[in-house]
Amino acid sequence: MKRYFTIGMAGHIDHGKTSLTKALTNVDTDRLKEEKERQISIELGFAPLYEDAEIQISVVDVPGHERFIRQMIAGVAGIDLVVLVVAADEGVMPQTREHLHILGLLGIRNGIVAITKVDRVEEEFIDLVKEDILEELKGTVFENSSFMLVDSLSLKGIDDLKNLIINTLKVQETRDVRGAFRLPIDQVFTIKGQGTVVRGTVYEGSVEEGQTLMVMPKGIETRARQLQVHHLPAKSAYAGQRTAINISGIAKEDIQRGDVLVSSEHFIVTRTIDVSLRVVEDLDYIVKQRMPIKCHIGTAEVMGRIVFFDRNELKDEDNEILCQIRLEEEVVTKRGDRFILRRPSPIETIGGGWVINPSGEKYRFGHQTVEELAKKKEGTPKERAIAALFEVKSLTFIELLTRTSLDETELKGVLNEDSVFLHYNAKEYTLLSLTALIEEEMYDRIKDFHNENEMRPGINKAELIQMMLKVYPKQLLEFVLENGIETTVFGKREQYIHLKDFTPHIPVNWQKRMEGMLADLKRDGLKVKYLSDYFTKAGIPNQLVPDIIRFLEDEKEIVPLDDQYFWHSEHFRHAVERLKSETGTEFEVGDAKVVLDLSRKYMIPFLERLDALGLTRRVDNKRVWKDK
Fold first, then answer.
1. At what angle do helices 94-105 and 123-137 cross, to 10 degrees?
2. Do 233 and 347 lie in a common domain?
3. Confidence category of residue 265, pLDDT binned at 50, 70, 90
4. Which of 352, 556, 593, 604 could form a disulfide with 340 if both were Cys (CB 3.0 to 4.6 A apart)?
5. Which of 64, 83, 82, 67 is nearest to 14 (CA)?
């Protein structure tokens, strides 16, 4: 598959970046009138450098003036290789150093040093400049970079530099074209008769003409009407390409640099990001807890505050700092994205790093939080998916994308490991180890319930679920429970859950007294006393009475007439059969009293019980047998 790269020209103002770009590409990237007049680059300039059947390379000319650092950050954030431009007649200058800091913090790993304007100085002076540069590059990403001597006017060394760039990129890994499309916007303009056009470097994925897209974080749906790559129409654009997209339905005023054009809603919109931060050497000012900062991420430039969890200030720090950035506006980002922090006033680059977790929360101050962030920082895609599921227990595919910041293809590959991950309910994912843990916990809870409630058929399903809801989501608990019932680990009796071998029973030490109580109730026939009197006579404690009554009802030993009177089930059954045989399809209370020889205190509750059981239906002053 063809690969696409964007390289950047970085360095101090007036060191010849734009001239070098023109010499390499034959394109003048200073297009603004102001840039022509002032002879400095204000906006990002782009030009095609090289293309064959295997590779396409574009150049971004980054502004060098200190005032235009934000444009520089926006441009360099999407590049694959940097040409650091240093003029032979001046050597390393302040913006050279600042660009070096920013390039390192943005994770640029491939660089070439181009010493320009070599025709202006003596050869001996070039050696001194080279030594100066080498000293400055120690400890940076350019420390072992190749040096090229060039002059943009005479074209000395231009072909050699171009060949070096091409050969370097041919063996370099390209950006990921498999996942969802993402293009951080760095330019917005209108073309008469065409409407709004956005431009940027495709970070990842690909886009096709006519494709439906979203402008984030605003959440505006649009369509890619037309695509251009270096002013030439294109049907599609890929990661690493500099692309202009004519979008429909959005006015120029409704979109801005820093917005992101995406093909999927899976990208996270956030104001709180957990980060790994490194600060630049020789900071002029102390960085204090919750100090206002300006965060550059992608092409966005957003005010915010820096939050430390293990300190209240810093100045000189060689190690990475795990901390948090709380922004005033929403940004679109994912794990692994690079950022730069700058002090708004007095202006100074503080440092930069990468996003550990784009969905940060409020944490407590202390080393425990830093340790948790360290765990999140480490991990393979599989480990990140496991960590996300272990923390939240159950997630949809989209939610997993959001939490892990993996691309769709990568996550699908991870989730195919059936021995680790479980797809259930057609949309949710969890860990097999978690389902085993939940089943074991349910088993223990049900067993404990049986030990404390020997007479009950089991624990109410809703009660069991409620007991575990603080730790596990409801849909996962219900899945594990139903699966346990299917595999006969658990049994179910109406709404009650029990262990498969459990049978409800009266405690052994109360068995004889209960049998005596039941015999007394049976002996009294239909004209019984209050049920509580039978328990008192049998010497059964009041605290056991409710459970024994429930047990005897579940076992069909007794039938309640109301809260006070209960009949032995044999007498109840006989009373129903006798009344049914000696009445017609309907009867009145008086008819029933004659048949059963009962007073109203028994008769009325008995007849209401028949209604409740669905054996009869009351119609005015009569009752109708339902099955006669």
1. 40
2. no
3. low
4. 352
5. 64
Q: Tell me the CA distances in angstroms from 316 to 278, 575, 605, one per residue in order.
A: 10, 93, 86
Q: Are residues 474 and 519 in the same domain?
A: no
pLDDT of res. 69: 55
What does the H/E/C string look like for 225-268?
EEEEECCEEECEEECCCEEEEEECCCCHHHCCECEEEECCCCCE
Does 177 fall in a domain? no
Closest CA to 431 of 402, 400, 401: 400
Which tokens belong to 178? 């498999």
Q: Are 235 and 207 in contact (CB under 8 A)?
A: no
- 35 pLDDT exceeds 60? no
Beta-sheet pairing, 111-116 with 146-149: parallel
- Side-chain half-sphere CA neighbours of 311 within 13 A: 13
DSSP structural state of residue 202 = -
For residue 543, the SS3 value is: helix
Q: How many whole angstroms separate alpha carbon 394 and alpha carbon 378?
A: 21
Max avg pLDDT among 174-183, 186-195, 294-303, 538-547: 294-303
Q: For the ranges 300-309, 400-409, 575-584, which has the lowest average pLDDT?
A: 400-409
Domain boundary among 214, 246, 262: 262
Residue with tokens 């270096």: 230
What pLDDT was estimated at residue 28? 66
Nearest to 35 by CA among 52, 12, 14, 21: 14
- Residue in this structure with the two tokens 């390289």, named with its chain if needed: 7
pLDDT at 175: 65
Mean of pLDDT over the chain: 85
Please give the angle made by the CA atoms of 505, 507 and 510, to the nearest 5 degrees.
Answer: 120
Instruction: Report how many domains make up the chain.
Output: 5
CA-angle at 214, arms to 209 and 218, nearest 5°: 150
Collapsing DSSP states into helix, strand and coil, what is residue 153? coil
Mean per-residue pLDDT, 481-492: 92
Polymer length in residues for the chain: 628
Question: Does residue 390 sit in the same domain as residue 365?
Answer: no
* CATH number of 496's domain: 1.10.10.10
Closest CA to 521 of 558, 489, 488: 558
Asked if residue 529 is part of any domain, the answer here is yes
**Same domain assignment for residues 449 and 477:** yes
Please give the residue range of the domain that contains residue 341: 268-375
Q: What is the pLDDT of residue 105?
A: 78
Instruction: Measure the CA–CA gap between 265 and 277, rounded to whole angstroms.
Output: 28
Does residue 62 have a pLDDT over 50? yes
